[in-house]
Amino acid sequence: MEPEVIQRSAQPYVSITTSVRMDQLAEVLGPQIGEVFGWLAARGVDPAGPPFWKYNVIDMAGESEIEVGVPTADQVSGDGRVQSYVLPAGRYAFVQHVGHPGLLEDATRALLEWAEERGLSWDIVPSAASAAGVRWVARVEEYLTDPVEQPDMEQWQTNLIFKLAD
């Protein structure tokens, strides 16, 4: 699909934040999706959408700070490892990737290039820059496909949703 700029409303969510090397994403973050869903179920809260990974700080050579999140209809109080946040309203660069999740890095690179070609700026937190890189306000990979229902990874659907500066 062709990238586009979309307007999104604020979205409450709960998540677990983890520091992880990029080569360990699936093995470390995968089980945390189940943990967040279990946390919601134990409190009788239904998810309001598909799970996602929110990249806060990306360090390809070291550890990145990533949240494993699940949207909720209303903001709920977090506790323990699971905390509550809100994805901000505003303009986002959006594209849906259909294919093997191993190709998401290429899809992300293409989305970044697409935005740059159009002079679009990302919403980052410049005062929170770290040695590893900048802190993104919202750089989200939303996972639409249930692997149990669709075992063919070439058919998996993922939304890339990156917050643009206002």
Primary descriptors:
166 residues; eight-stranded antiparallel β-sheet; two-stranded antiparallel ribbon; 19% helix
What does the secondary structure layout of this molecule look like, with pairings?
Blueprint: E1 4-8, E2 11-21, H1 25-42, E3 52-57, E4 63-71, E5 83-87, E6 90-98, H2 104-117, E7 124-130, E8 133-136, E9 139-143, E10 157-163
Antiparallel strand pairs: 1-6, 2-4, 2-5, 3-4, 3-9, 6-10, 7-8, 9-10
Plain-language structure description:
Strands 1-6-10-9-3-4-2-5 form an eight-stranded antiparallel beta sheet. The model has no long low-confidence stretch (mean pLDDT 93). 19% of the residues lie in helices and 41% in strands. It has a domain at 8-92 and 121-149: Regulatory factor, effector binding domain (Multidrug-efflux Transporter 1 Regulator Bmrr, Chain A). The protein has helices at residues 25-42, 104-117; strands at 4-8, 11-21, 52-57, 63-71, 83-87, 90-98, 124-130, 133-136, 139-143, 157-163. Strand 7 and strand 8 form a beta hairpin. The radius of gyration is 15 Å and the shape is globular. With 166 residues, the protein is α+β, with helices and mostly antiparallel strands.
